[in-house]
Design goal:
- It is built from 14 helices and eleven strands.
- By secondary structure, the chain is α/β, with parallel strands linked by helices.
- The protein has one domain (about 5-435): Amidase signature (AS) enzymes, CATH 3.90.1300.10.
- It has an eleven-stranded mixed beta sheet, with helices on both faces.
- A hairpin with a 5-residue loop joins β10 (about 380-385) and β11.
- The protein is globular, with a radius of gyration of 20 Å.
- The relative contact order is 0.16.
């Protein structure tokens, strides 16, 4: 099976070749996957710690030269405060902005569906979902159009597409990365993070975006036993394979039950998510160009009173304390599912399809939403493939501000595995043999 090389493992000649071909390759991949909304003009070779690292930005961040659509056909009504400094920081570190990637409407849908621009297709099999809402960013990274992509995560919008597309995602500690200049969804939960094939690219890019506090290495972990019991066999096997790898890297691994704590957190998370997103985007409720299910969800969120919203936000601290004592006690991190189900086909997640399943759509974010309320950092990593040849993965969740330690642990694990570097079947023909390792 072909695989990509880590960007920072390439020599100067190979990096220069990729830089020269990046726009042409992005266009070829976009024609197949619908991953980009805008591809930027070519730039000169850059110096700095990121060494012309090709990257993309989810089309919900405003820069000095770009006004995003937020996934809508006409983004002129998307309310954004200020301009994002994230792209500027990456540019200053020597990265190369290749383009802006597609997303779901108002970052509100977990499968990758978008009525305005069409869905982003999965580079492993175009009949399957790419995950949302950072769907274009994940597909662009998985297909090799870029090495790193910026995305957002309010309830799983980085980690779900990372699972579906077989790449690595960093959802940072809440508040660690500035959300200024980004379209809001639910400010109590919103984070801006990164997708890449592996932590070898994520770690340098993350450090360019924000200072990462140094903490003790992560050595004591536990699998969320009852959560994995509800997962598909391929996901359980991926967790077992990752655990075996961890045990050989000096980590201790136990088991803990967490479903009661997760469910208590989830009820509060959904209330906040629906209420705050409705308030952020209430002016779109009567916009008939927007997908009807999304408009109904926004209208339902407005039925939640300000008092109820405030009560649920106020419960956050107690829920964090309970999770710390019930689940995290004596641990540095826990290993959880990203999804309990394997990646579904697109028709199962499309309300216009006769095969649509609301249960499947809900299941996509069941094990990601609670992390946003906790404010914890999480790294989603690929750990294998299901019987259909689609990627599966897990997430490693640490305490607040342990982002650097999580990324270092992930980089170490990935230096002894190759799940994260494999080239997706639907795009492998776009690469010459000399560009890939066997």
């Amino acid at each position: 099976m072909h695989r990509f090389s880590d960007w920072f493992a390439l020599d100067a000649v190979a990096r220069q070749h990729w830089h020269a071909a990046s726009r042409e390759r992005a266009r070829a991949i976009d024609a197949r996957l619908n991953a980009f909304l805008q591809i930027e003009p070519s730039s000169t070779v850059r110096t700095g710690p990121l060494r012309s690292l090709p990257y993309a930005v989810k089309d919900m961040l405003r820069t000095a030269d770009h006004r995003p659509t937020g996934g809508l056909a006409d983004g002129s009504g998307v309310a954004i405060t200020g301009s994002s400094t994230i792209a500027a920081k990456l540019d200053q570190a020597g990265a190369d902005l290749v383009g802006f990637t597609g997303m779901t409407e108002l970052a509100s849908e977990p499968s990758g569906l978008n009525d305005a621009h069409g869905r982003v297709k999965n580079p492993w099999n175009t009949n399957y979902i790419s995950g949302g809402s950072s769907s274009g960013s994940a597909a662009a990274v998985a297909s090799g159009a870029v090495a790193v992509a910026v995305g957002s995560d309010t309830g799983g919008s980085l980690r779900i597409p990372a699972f579906c597309c077989g790449v690595t995602a960093w959802k940072p500690t809440y508040g660690l990365v500035s959300t200024v200049g980004a379209m809001p969804l639910a400010p109590t939960l919103d984070t801006i993070g990164l997708l890449a094939r592996g932590a070898a690219e994520l770690l340098p890019a993350a450090r360019a975006m924000s200072p990462l506090p140094r903490t003790a290495p992560i050595r004591r972990l536990a699998l969320l036993r009852d959560a994995f019991e509800e997962c598909a066999p391929a996901i359980r096997q991926g967790a077992a394979d990752f655990s075996y790898l961890l045990s050989g890297r000096g980590c201790s691994l136990g088991h803990v039950d967490a479903l009661p704590a997760i469910e208590a957190i989830d009820n509060v998370t959904l209330t906040i998510l629906f209420a705050e997103s409705a308030r952020a985007h209430r002016h779109h409720i009567n916009d008939e160009s927007i997908e009807p299910t999304l408009r109904r969800r926004l209208a339902k969120g407005l039925e939640i009173s300000d008092a109820t919203l405030a009560e649920n936000v106020a419960r956050r601290a107690a829920l964090i304390d309970a999770f710390e004592s019930q689940v995290m006690a004596g641990l540095d991190a826990v290993i959880a599912p990203v999804m309990a189900i394997t990646t579904p086909t697109a028709d199962l997640c499309d309300p216009k399809s006769d095969r649509f399943s609301g249960k499947i759509l809900y299941a996509l974010s069941r094990f990601t939403r609670f992390v946003n309320l906790l404010g914890y950092p999480s790294i989603a990593v690929p750990t294998g493939f299901d019987p259909q040849g689609m990627p599966v993965g897990i997430q490693i969740i640490g305490r607040r501000n342990t982002d650097f330690a999580l990324l270092e642990l992930t980089q170490d694990m990935q230096s002894h595995s190759d799940w994260h570097g494999r080239v997706p079947a639907a795009v492998v023909d776009l690469y010459a043999a000399r560009e890939l390792s066997g």
